[in-house]
Specification:
The chain is α/β, with parallel strands linked by helices. The protein folds into 4 domains: 83 residues, Conserved hypothetical protein from pyrococcus furiosus pfu- 392566-001, ParB domain (Alpha-Beta Complex), CATH 3.90.1530.10; 35 residues; 69 residues, no CATH class; 75 residues. It is built from 13 helices and 5 strands. It has a 5-stranded mixed β-sheet with strand order 1-5-3-4-2. Strand 3 and strand 4 form a beta hairpin. Helix 11 crosses helix 13 and helix 12 crosses helix 13.
Length: 278
């Protein structure tokens, strides 16, 4: 802050104006950053009573407490308003992070930067090829957090002009999901595809899905043919049995014999004939 006064204040005289919850991962990154390169950004405070309230830097304050620091570098804020800098400071976007890491590499080694970010390596953060292959509008959407890194990679399967068309369609439908991008990428005409990216391209994936679907359909047709033949044979056998039973039950002597000795069988035979008729 221009014109703000800087001073070192004992930690026991500081207290947060209000709490802000952050994930454990985010807090660990702050902690790792301070361990690796120290506290780069001072706390913003405002005097109150015999102490100071923290307007910006509550998580840095918590990290300093955990590290056992007794005095913190601070800047006096112009007013005691919870415009709180914590709420006004946005998280660093992927593109901004990329630029910051590249700039830091001019003076600091990769291991120190990775430790400051609380990660093992920064190799996956330096996606130079990814940024170079994005249309400026797509890169801006990536920078603003509208699309994530996985989504951004899907854009690289098509040429910049097609990327712009897809992004416009996403904005029109208000759908920035990776699934929606993949659907539009797969529908891209051959002349708008980026042929440099051949390995694991979406058209290979869609071809595999088509092959899987065809195999499933073939299996289903095979099962259908089997059950159709089985049903047909069952129908023929049932008809033959009905004819045989009809022959027996219409024979006067056989019917009288069965009626006298096995009336239940006669009832079953009649039921079979009735079912056959239908």
């Amino acid at each position: 802050m221009e014109g703000s006064e800087g001073l070192d204040i004992p930690m026991i005289r500081l207290r947060p104006l209000r709490e802000r919850k952050v994930s454990k991962r985010e807090f660990n990154r702050i902690l790792a950053s301070i361990k690796a390169v120290g506290l780069i950004e001072p706390l913003v405070v405002y005097p109150e009573g015999d102490g100071y309230v923290i307007l910006d830097g509550v998580q840095r304050y918590r990290a300093l407490l955990e590290l056992g620091v007794e005095v913190a570098p601070c800047i006096l804020g112009p007013q005691r308003e919870a415009f709180t800098c914590d709420r006004m400071v946005n998280r660093v976007s992927p593109v901004q992070e990329h630029r910051m890491i590249e700039k830091s590499l001019e003076e600091v080694d990769e291991a120190s930067i990775a430790a400051a970010l609380g990660i093992t390596t920064i190799g996956h953060r330096l996606k130079k090829a990814l940024l170079k292959r994005l249309h400026p509008d797509v890169a801006a959407a990536f920078d603003e957090g509208k699309i994530n890194r996985v989504c951004a990679r899907e854009f690289t399967h098509v040429r910049p002009a097609r990327q712009k068309e897809i992004l416009d369609a996403m904005a029109g439908y208000k759908d920035y999901s990776t699934a929606f991008v993949r659907t539009l990428v797969v529908k891209t005409p051959p002349h708008q595809r980026d042929t440099r990216r051949r390995k694991n391209n979406p058209w290979d994936r869609s071809a595999q899905r088509r092959n899987d679907l065809l195999k499933q359909l073939a299996d289903a047709e095979q099962k259908h043919d089997f059950y159709s033949r089985l049903y047909k044979q069952y129908t023929i056998d049932l008809l033959r049995m009905a004819i045989y039973v009809w022959t027996l039950i219409t024979n006067t002597r056989v019917r009288e014999y069965l009626q006298a000795r096995h009336p239940a069988v006669v009832a079953q035979f009649e039921a079979i004939i009735a079912d056959a008729r239908g």
